[in-house]
Amino acid sequence: MDLFASVDAFLVDAFLEPDEALDAALRRSAEADLPPIAVAPNQGKLLHLLVRMSGARNVLEVGTLGGYSTIWLARAAERVTTLELDPRHAEVARQNLAGAGLTNVEVLVGPALETLPTLTETVDFAFVDADKVNNARYVEQVLRLSRPGTVIVIDNTVRQGRVADLSQTTPDVVGTRELFELLRTDPRVDATTVQTVGSKGHDGFTLAVVR
After folding, report:
1. Rounded CA gap, 118 and 122, in Å?
2. Residue ranges of the domains in the chain?
3. In 3D, which of 52, 43, 8, 35 has the Cα closest to residue 156?
4. Measured between alpha carbons, how far is 174 from 171 in angstroms, rounded to an integer?
5. Residues 3, 197: contact at Cβ < 8 Å?
6. Is 21 left (phi over 0), alpha (psi -120 to 50) or beta?
7. The CATH classification of domain 2-210, taken from the options 3.40.50.150, 3.40.50.2300, 2.60.120.200, 3.40.50.300
8. How many of the other CB atoms lie within 10 Å of CB of 151?
9. Which DSSP string corresponds to 49-100?
10. Mind listing the pLDDT tens digit for each residue in 101-140?
């Protein structure tokens, strides 16, 4: 773990410029006692690059937390709609977005499975980083809002390797396997999952594109 974190730190120094708005977002989130589960800086940069590479204009995020990943997404897109369950988290995110000078983000508060069915605009890119139990349900809703070429990224889908251990039946692992089955069998989408190591430990992400 120490090696993974030190390599991440090296890579961040190599490829990311100092960024006060992002640093302030992490500080404000920590001061508000939000859980320290935001994406790592190099993963945030990956999201930013994926939005740019896909040419996405309208981005959907499921799971705002303190808005750290939202800032990365919003700097690459014309518009971001982000969904957050906890009103306190959403308020911190709004402060962080304002601190970053971003006005192209709408933060919607409430259970995502209640909010998603109310959305009607087509999305070009979606980042799903919420409770893992409902990942398949979230992606089903994202697919409803997608077009051919829409990119979908789902975070934390390796679960420290537990997803491959069939004796593991915790809700997060079961929910992840349900997501994999949806993506494997749904003819609308093509997907893969990549395991990663880094400052967040052993995990991974799933990347999908709508056919």
Report:
1. 12
2. 2-210
3. 43
4. 5
5. no
6. alpha
7. 3.40.50.150
8. 21
9. HHHHHHT--EEEEE--TTSHHHHHHHTTSSEEEEEES-HHHHHHHHHHHHHT
10. 999 999 999 999 999 999 999 999 999 999 999 999 999 9
- Where are the alpha helices (H) located in the chain, listed in sequence order? 2-15, 20-31, 41-54, 68-74, 87-99, 112-115, 135-144, 171-185
Cβ proximity of 173 and 152 under 8 Å: no
Q: Is the pTM of this model over 0.90?
A: yes
pLDDT in tens, 146-171: 999 999 999 999 999 999 999 999 99
The DSSP 8-state label assigned to residue 188 in this structure reads: T
Helix 135-144 with 171-185: angle, nearest 10 deg: 30
Residues with Cβ within 8 Å of 118's Cβ and at least 6 positions away in sequence, in order, are none
